[in-house]
Structures are given as structure tokens and as C-alpha cells.
UniProtKB/TrEMBL annotation:
Gene source species: Aphanomyces astaci (Crayfish plague agent)
Listed GO CC annotations: nucleus
Biological process terms in GO annotation: mRNA pseudouridine synthesis; tRNA pseudouridine synthesis
Biased composition (Basic and acidic residues): 11-41
Name of the protein in its database record: Pseudouridine synthase I TruA alpha/beta domain-containing protein
Residues covered by region (Disordered): 1-60
PANTHER family: PSEUDOURIDYLATE SYNTHASE, PSEUDOURIDYLATE SYNTHASE 1 HOMOLOG
Amino acid sequence: MAKPKRKHWSEKKAEKKARRENAEANGGDDEKKEDEYDRRNHFPAAIHPGSYASQLDATDTTDKCGTATKKRYGLLLAYGGKQYSGMQMNIGVKTVEAELERALYEAGGIARCNYGMIQKVAFLMNTSSMLITPQIGWNRAARTDKGVHAAGQLVCAKLCIEDGKVEEFRLKVNSFLPTDIQVLEIVLVTKNFNAKNSCDRRTYEYLTPTFVFAPKAAAADSTEGGGAAAAGPWTAKTNDEFQSLEVDPAAWAKQKEFRLDASALEKLRETLAIFEGTH
């Protein structure tokens, strides 16, 4: 027995629109239950306070976006995270995501009505207002913490890019980005592609100076003022506090000379092996 023919998406869309119109005419009761469980209703429609869009004049509706049809693209980027409080956009701090969004907006890839709402969904359905808004559908393959760099981070979003001008657009975006953030490549992806869900592995590399493994006596020898008392216990200062410290050049040179011996290196590897596996 032949399977019933699947309805085209346009037919389903028309039927859903008809149901909404019928529900609105009847007071919305028919669609009330469906709306309550539509997860898209719970996405914020307000400008994210961590976006540069929150600093714009609300009366300025100038749109830098052209007439190009919005399509889903994957953006491969690399960045040095020293100056940023992580990848994900957050209020009150400088983030990689906010810088990237601003550059995409300035380059004309994001419309003014969508600027500051990178995770806006296709439909914000409300039977009283029937608000329908465009989709950005922003997602990322991974998040990085404060001060962490990325050699290959993938972001996916729907952008307005003219056909045949993807490379030109990439260069334009980079011109609006800080020098420590660069888009390496932009490719067109399928409409259902999701950078996070399609990611099957993430590779992290940790770089540690060898002198952090130096015995306390060795650390004391390189501490100005001399003696084990001057070295003291390892502190728990934050990264910001350490960045503000002045380091004695002679002590720094002494620290850089330290190298792990074979036995210490083997002990370190045995310790790290305990953490191998799935977490």
C-alpha cells in the first residue's frame, strides 16, 4: 500500500494561518492550548542588554541591511580571548559574541529590527497581537570562558548576504572587528543546520608554564628578598589581580629557566591521566 503523500510546507503554513485566523475570530480558544506549549513564545523579544544594540538611539531606524534574501550561514572564526569575558553575550562585560554581532550588523548582514536579538525565533505567536518577526537563529558550537582563546569556533546564523559576494562580505565583517577576532570563512549551510547539535567533538589545548611545577624551594630562590618565607604559599588571586602586578625582570628570567625533570614529568602525566574519559 502506497504511503500517503506528504503535504508541502506551504500547504501546512497556509492551514496553520487559517487556524490562527479562525481562533482569533472565535476569541482564541481553539489555539490557546497550542500557544501555551509553543516553546517559541518563551524566547525574549527584547534587545539583549549585553548587545551594542542597547546603546543605539531607539528612534534611529536606519537599516544597513540590503535587499539580499536572508539565508543560513556558518561562520568559522578565531579569536584571542584575553580582552573578553567569554564567548557568550552577557550584560556589563565585553564578549566575543557582542563584537561579532556588531560587525555583522555594520557590514549589513543583520537588519536593524533584529539587531540585539540574535536568538529571535521565526514566529512569536500571540493570538492578541499576532506578531510575526524574522528569524536570526543564532547558535554556536561551543562557549569559551573569560580569557580563553579559540583557533576554530563555529557560529551559525541567518544573514543577508548578496549571492556571489560571500568573500567580499567576510572581508567587510573583519574590517569592523577588533584585530583579535577574525572570521576565517563563511559558508552557506542547510536551513536546519545547528552548530551546537552538529558538533560531535571539541578539542581543547591547555598551555602551562613549567615553573608552576617548580618545588617551593626553587620558587623561593627566584623570589626577590630571598628565603622560603618570601615565597609563601601559592595564592588564590584572580586573573585580573595578577595582570595588575609588576614582575621583577630578574625573577621572571629565573622562573623561565626552570624545566621539569623526567620523574616530575612522569608524575604529572600520571596525575592528568586520572581525569581522562567522559565527564
